[in-house]
Design goal:
There is one protein chain. This protein is an alpha/beta fold. It is built from ten helices and nine strands. It has one domain. It is globular. The strands form two sheets. It has a seven-stranded mixed β-sheet. Strands 6-7 form a two-stranded antiparallel ribbon. α2 packs across α4.
Length: 293
Amino acid sequence: MKRAGYYIFVTLSHTITLLPMWALHLLSDLLWPFIYHVVKYRRGVVETNLRNAFPEKSPEERKRIAKRFYRHLTDLIVETLKAMHMSPEQIKKRFSVSDTSLADRFYSEGRDIVALCSHYNNWEWYSSMQLSSKHRVILIYKPLKNKDFDRLLHKIRTRFGTWVTPMSHIIRDLVKCRNEKILTMSGFIADQTPPPDDNAFWTTFLNQDTCFYRGAEKVAVKYDMPVIFINIARKKRGFYELEYSLISEHPREEEPNAIIARYAAMLEEAIRVKPEYWLWSHRRWKHKREEKK
C-alpha cells in the first residue's frame, strides 16, 4: 500500500512540475493555508520553537513569522520537485553564487574545502552547486528511512553532477578524490540534531541550549581543510543567491569546537534577519543538555 502511494505521488508530482514556475508558485499560494489551517502540520512544534527562540517578540509577531514560514515551506516543496525538469541553465539562473573568489582562491592553492550549510531558504537546490564550482562538490546527507523517497531525492540531488554521500562514507570519498588529484568541497547541512552524547557540542543558539554535530570540524582538522559558511539569500520568489564567508582558513590552529561555535553564531545572525526561511517544523530542541551521558 505504501509503495502504491509512492508511485501515485511520483506520477502526480512529475506531471504537476511540468508547469512553469509561476504556476507552481500559484499552487503553493493555495497549498500553504491548507497545510497551516486544516492539516496544521507540526503547528505545535513551529509555535513552540518560535516562542522559545524569540521570547522578546509578541505573539502576533511570532504568528506572522509562522505563516510566512508555511508559505515558504510550500514554495520549497514545489521548487524541489521542479528541479526534476529544470535544465542546468534554468537552475543556475535561479540559484547563483554572488562571489566565488573565496572558493576559487582555495582551488588555486590546491586545497579542499569544508562548506557548512543549513536548512535555510531553498537548501534542496544545493544540488546544483557543481554548476558554479571548480571543486568537486560532495553533499553529505542522512538517508531517509523510506527507501523509495530516498531514491527519488537522490535522483533529484544528483541531476546536476553533485555527489551525495552519507556521513559514514565521506572519509572514503575524500581519500578517493585525493588519490585521483580531485579537489573537493564537502557540504555539511550542519544544523541537524545529533544524539546528546559525548560527540555533541553544546552552545547557546536562538536563546536555547543546542547541540551540534562535531563531524564537519573533525574532517576539517584531520585534512586541514579551510571552512566556509554558505548562506542562501532570497532575492525574490524562486531566485536565490549563495554567499560564501570564511569561518576558518587553518582549522588545525583553532581551539576545539571554535569552528562549530562560529558557524552557529553566523547561522543565528542570518536567521534573525529573515526568520521565516529557516526550518521551524524540525524538532531541533528535542534533547536537553542535562540528558548528555
